[in-house]
Amino acid sequence: MTKDNSHDLVMIGAGQAAIPLAHALAGAGMRVCLVERKHLGGSCINFGCTPTKAALASARVAYQARRAATFGLRVPVVEVDFAGVLVRAKSIVQQSRRSIKRGFENSGQPHLIYGHARLEGRDEAGFLIRVEDRLLTAKQVVLDTGTRSRIPTVEGIDKVKVITAGTWLDETELPEHIVVIGSGSTGLEMSQFYRRMGSRVTVIDHNQQIAKDEDEDVAEVLQRSLAAEEIRFYLQTEVRQVKPDGNNLVLNLEGNAPTEIMASHLFVATGRRPNTDDLGLETIGVEVTDKGFVTVDARLSTNVQGIWAAGDVRGGPMYTHTAWDDYRVLESQIAGDGARTTERIVPYAFFTDPELGRVGLTEREARRSGKRIKVGRYDMKKNGRAAELGDTDGFIKVVVDADTDRILGAAALAAGGAELIHTIIGVMNARAAVATIRNAIHIHPTLSEAVQSAVYSIKADEVKNN
User: Fold this and answer.
1) Measured between alpha carbons, how far apart are the two ends of the chain, in Å?
2) Beta bridge partners of 34
3) On the chain, which terminus has fewer CB atoms closer than 10 Å, C or N?
4) DSSP bridge pairs for 349
5) Is the pTM of this model over 0.85?
6) Is 38 helix (H, G, I), strand (E, B) or coil?
7) What are phi and psi of 89, to 5 degrees?
8) What is the pLDDT of residues 397-437, one digit of tens each?
9) Distance of alpha carbon 290 from alpha carbon 273, whole angstroms
């Protein structure tokens, strides 16, 4: 066993927070070691954002080609090379991995080690971290180990093959009929991907609406758009049992659905569980929630001084952009003035088609808060650019505090909704009044005009009393 006492800070897990943080702290003169078990880049690079959005782009090309006649064009046949689609997505993953790895080459700092890291208590030199046959010590530790797919408790599910967010890229066979359990962002994005590739798709969810945390009108319009592509939905439905039947699967259901359906493949998108079960957190007394997420404060500090957590493993919003901002928080706390914390406005998106860009409170949440609110809404079918592009599904909704005239939240369910919502994000971060958008000049014709149109739809006398 080799003991290495040379580190000021050890990072366990090379996700979207740890990589830039390692470089920043090393640049500040700290002796930094980054330990990664398998691949650099975390879930985003390896199976999440990067490959899924690449695959969705291929799916959209196929979808648009099938709609060619709408644009006065003839595309007689659209052939999907499913394996080729995945090869393209994987090539972008490999390119991203290589780019990240190059940042660690020909440099002693930050130091990169591959292997499984586990805390093993502490001594006079600091925290002890075992990596294979090495024992590292560090004065501080950052945990960035991420999450993995949570498999629901369903009879027989452990005896059949299940596709998840972490394994889909390895499946080169196009499903004939894929059942997706879960209707959050992952479930809906992958449902539309498989449908546009040519699979029959059924979505099952125990909630009464898809995208359960969104407003009812958002969920309703999004479901209608997806259903128009012949994606079938069974809501308020539970999967009770899964069993093999030759090359297929039989699912026994309970709720608003047939009691039994058959599928060729099963995709599970029912949430995430943290990678904390083999970190040795108990050896130094780090507190975790009942679901295993590391408990942190607004500074991303755990209950043990010198132990920090970043990215999905710390619970809360699980997005690449929040993980990246975690790096900025930790740089501020460890090597800066400590001013930056997780008291922040966090937007997110569903990269379905139409996209859903979201920030702040939903209308439902705003009404429950007791605030006096004003709501503006504008349907994309009225927007000139949307009509020209042939993408008129969806709407923009803006929720405003009637007393301060500041935006409380917004939803952009539209083509490019994840881009459109940034008009709102900037104004909210500036703590500016909604009049900032109302009084601006927007380029015509653009989709972003719909955001201004939604603001214009708010009348002075439309104060909503709760």
Assistant:
1) 66
2) 11, 112
3) N
4) 357
5) yes
6) coil
7) -60, -45
8) 999 999 999 999 999 999 999 999 999 999 999 999 999 99
9) 11
